[in-house]
Amino acid sequence: MVSPELNNRKKLFIILAAVAASLLLFAFLFVSYFGNLNQKNDYSYIISSVPSPNIYNHSGRYLPLFEDISASVFSVSEYWYPNETKPYETNEYFDSGLGNVISRNRIVKYFEEKHEGKYDVRQENLSINELQRYINPNVRTPLIVLNRSSLDQPDELDWNIAEVLIGIKELEQKLVFHSYWYGNNYEVSFDDFEKLQSGSSAQPGVYKKHSFLVVQPKNLKQKVDEVKLRSISAYPDRLPVMTKLNPYFKDYLIVKGSNFRLANNLTEKYFAKLVDSTDFESQFPAFFKIRAYIYMAQMLAREGKLDEALEYTNKAMAMNKELNKPMGNGWNGFEFHGDKRKEEFVGVTQFPYFFAAEIYMKKGDYEKASENYQKVVDMAPDYEDAVRKLNIAKAIIQNK
Question: Higher pLDDT residue, 328 or 9?
């Protein structure tokens, strides 16, 4: 017979062993949990074969795309249904110059109107940790997101550019975008993405939910299977000129956005910063110099400084030639719709003439307004606004 004392020792041993095992288990779970808070996941996936229309490859089917939002929408729709999206029609739908308000709702409306019945389009609030729901080999769904134009954009400027999220690099803490302005496979750190979404209020390592546009075919499984069967080549390497020009375009986009938002003080401030940049004259592409000068002219015209505004349109006209030609810095030139209609208009844009005509109309100089509108119509006969205003100017001249 076992003595009571021995039984008690056994019971005590069992209890102590159980307590020790519990403590070890608790310690393991504690270390695992809190260790993983700082441990970076090694998940990495980039969706292949997503088209990247951008300012660095502005030719071919991408030629009519002049806005980041039309380029992003074209990118996603062309990815799911190759060769079925009309680029000129897409650009016109989002042309802010025609009075279109650019918003997520307008993107949803575009897919409903132009691709009726093909897509399920919705806005979803997702944190960075939830993006794997779509950026993965089984669903392969690129997401459209509206970001601030850069980390330099002032908080008071309510202005966004559209970009397409194609990849996640967890170990490097980076997201990968196709950006109309910054080029293909443009990488942004998790923390910087939060700043692009939330401005200066963003806190490092704190990843909130943000709005993404999910665009998926209604027959998603079938389309994903088709995508998997495509002949896929690697994305082209990012061009050195993309990195070289990115600082210029960050200021340019603030000029563009502040002009659109009628924030005259910001337009003037960042225009001066842009043109004073090192090597601006030799490095920044002439097509976008012209547009920057036009934005400045528009700002001055709003302030009633019409003669000063004309000085900027005249500067724009002076450089309006051979815009489609490459530059020595690796820039490939910027082709645009209608280049080859007439030999004399190859590499020339109508923008300076249109805005000069607008200013002359305000000055009451209808002859010069008519002359400049006529140049626009000669270059772009289907530019309806220019045709209409040319007829108005001519009618005023005739009735004098």
Answer: 328
Architecture of domain 45-229: Alpha-Beta Complex (3.90)
Check pLDDT > 60 for residue 104. yes
Token pair 């093909």 is found at 118
Average pLDDT, the chain: 88
The C-alpha atoms of residue 390 and residue 372 are separated, in whole angstroms, by 9
**Residues near 273 by beta carbon (within 8 Å), at least 6 away in sequence:** 251
Record the tokens describing residue 389, joined without a space: 């205003």
**45-229 and 240-398 share one fold:** no
Place of tokens 């080859």: 340
Query: Could you tell me the residue ranges of all domains in the chain?
Result: 45-229, 240-398
Tell me how far apart the alpha carbons of residues 228 and 233 are, in angstroms, rounded to a whole number.
12
CA–CA gap between residue 137 and residue 78 (Å, rounded): 19
Q: For 7-57, how does the pLDDT look when each residue is reduced to its tens digit (9 = 90+)?
A: 555 565 566 566 566 666 665 555 444 444 444 467 899 999 999 999 999
Pairing of strands 210-217, 119-126: antiparallel
CA-nearest of 181, 205, 180, 179 to 192 is 205
What pLDDT score was predicted for residue 261? Answer: 92
Exposed/middle/buried for residue 315 (C-beta within 10 Å: 0-12, 13-18, 19+): middle
Q: Which residue from 164, 167, 127, 124 is spatially nearest to 147, judged by alpha carbons?
A: 164
What's the confidence (pLDDT) of residue 183? 96
Domain 240-398: give its CATH architecture: Alpha Horseshoe (1.25)
